[in-house]
Amino acid sequence: MMAPARQLLHDIFGYSAFRGAQQAIVEHVAAGGDALVLMPTGGGKSLCYQLPALMREGVAIVVSPLIALMQDQVDALTQLDVQAAFLNSSLDADAAREVTGRLLRGDLKILYVAPERLLMPGFLTLLDQLQSEGPGIALFAIDEAHCVSQWGHDFRPEYRQLTVLHERFAKVPRIALTATADAPTRNEIIERLALEDAQQFVSSFDRANIRYRVTQKNNARSQLEAFLEREHPNDAGIVYCLSRRKVEETAEWLHSRGWDALPYHAGLDPAIRNANQRRFLREEGVIMVATVAFGMGIDKPNVRFVAHLDLPKSMEGYYQETGRAGRDGLPANAWMAYGLGDVVSMRQMLDAGDAPEDRKRVERQKLDALLGFCESTACRHQTILRYFGEEHPGNCGQCDNCLEPVETWDGTEAARMALSCVYRTGQRFGVVHLIEVLLGKQTEKVEQFGHHLLTTFGIGKSLAQPQWSSVFRQLVAAGLLETDIEHYGGLRLTEAARPVLRGEQPVWFRHDPEVSRRKVSKAERAARAREGYEGVGDDPLWQALRARRMELARDQGVPPYVIFHDSTLLEILNQRPQTLDQLGRITGVGQAKLARYGDDFLKVLEDAANGSAG
Question: By CB atoms within 10 Å of each CB, which of 133, 136, 383, 458 scores lowest?
Fold first, then answer.
């Protein structure tokens, strides 16, 4: 089975080898097995269902939550000469009928649909017909499967009804895929989609090419512009803001300062919103200033930075949003400025919402986990991965804490007080109550449980309430405490807390330094901008290759990265192939793209060689 898979991988997608668990997943699904796939953004999830779709009889039905994502995927597959289409509300009746006809005739290998459409009785009947009279169903792929979780950040109630696929088409293999799922969300995906018997494939969540940096706010706009000038003067990127008003004001301010910045939020006129998204996808160097309404399903691989001017709601949200940077595997930045005002605003939003109290409690805990990440002195990659249940050795060399260690204070005694308080109160209370015990506050709840009689009552008066909040957040981020989300959010000790409690291991907490406002010189700015592409930014051949890609993309009305990713252009630049055969060995150049674009890019290389020779 895998010989044709490897052949298809090379001939259609232009890759010579599988990455990570891809081969095992493809083999399992192509053989008819169900799978749950957790793989980071940019890790190659799409290939895990696209390749089995081409190997199996019939058409693959892909459930996808966003129109933009479907369009992007179909554009990319069409470039590879794969018969793909989508059915969604963007099509008029005639176009929808044409797609349905192609489906029943067997002229499609992959069809993308929204969960709402899939659940319509008429569409389910169409699938019955496809299975009984037509070419058959190769597999069901459920993309962005975390949307099934009520605790997740992208909850879509329709996803919970997708068990109908298992009930109605029991013999058709299903593959559920997501890039963001902590343990509770993972369990909910399995339960809600009836995937108890599915094989689980969990890849590393580490995005080693992303450099994480978190700074305290001190005129956030100026800090953002300094970051852009220093490292991304001509790059595409995303700036996330909490409110629609702030999105528009920030985009306008950046535009007035000479940046090609556009706003995006759910309240914009749909035509403007779509036009802005189209420009971001199809042009180079555009900055999208957006709320979280923008991003899921954005496959643009050369987003070089994601900046946050406000705190996201959770670590899942932060991980998914920052994961939109550097999907091509090249260096990228995740930069965030946060302040006390963010925390207050976010908590007010949570408290004022209509969600049930148990959901609000979970969301507050998720926000605290994110704050702990911001305040932690540990390696950022290590802290993110620990949140998702994965170990990392630290010292990544790709985050602010590893590259420029912050000022710290010896928090060993404070940590022992906090951990001891958690233990003596029974490992079932939240931060607010624990701090009241440490500060010696005789509240009704403290007296109700007799916690005013504990040895830890009042021993923490040397620190103020905000400092204790930070201590608890950092202890959670460091993996010494964990939140029991499923049982009212009480804090409990982890095995790692034992040596600290016994006085065998010191603990250091963060002191944030004053934010530097140093002006960056133009020379330094240019040098840092070139760093991301290892010195190619000013290479005339690099510019010529990008220009030809843009011409081809404009002629076809597709984003440039659909032609070739930056990583493919870099390999062409470094390898300088002289024949179609040599070009065909470049990663990302499959047979369809070689036939379609090979001569164009060889001509660019030939012209450059003749120019340098002359």
Answer: 133
Alpha helices in 239-294 (DSSP H): 244-256, 270-282
- CATH match for 534-613 among 3.40.50.720, 3.40.50.300, 1.10.150.80, 1.10.3880.10: 1.10.150.80
Q: What is the tens place of the pLDDT at every residue in 548-598?
A: 999 999 999 888 989 999 889 989 998 999 999 999 989 899 999 999 999
pLDDT value of position 180? 76
CB 564 within 8 A of CB 548: no
The structure's pTM equals 0.72
Q: Which of 139, 146, 171, 179 is nearest to 160 (CA)?
A: 146
pLDDT band, very low/low/confident/very high, at 326 (cuts 50, 70, 90): very high
**CATH topology for the 210-358+366-405 domain:** Rossmann fold (3.40.50)
- Compute CA distances 362 → 113, 181, 373, 384, 527, whole Å: 31, 15, 17, 18, 44
Q: Are 334 and 210 in contact (CB under 8 A)?
A: yes
Distance CA 28, CA 175 (A): 10
Question: What pLDDT, in 10s, does the model give residues 476-519?
Answer: 878 898 877 665 668 899 999 999 999 899 998 887 443 333 34
pLDDT digits (tens, 9 = 90+) for 446-455: 999 999 999 9
Fold of 408-511: Arc Repressor Mutant, subunit A (1.10.10)
Q: Which residue in 139, 76, 600 sits closest to 327, CA to CA?
A: 76
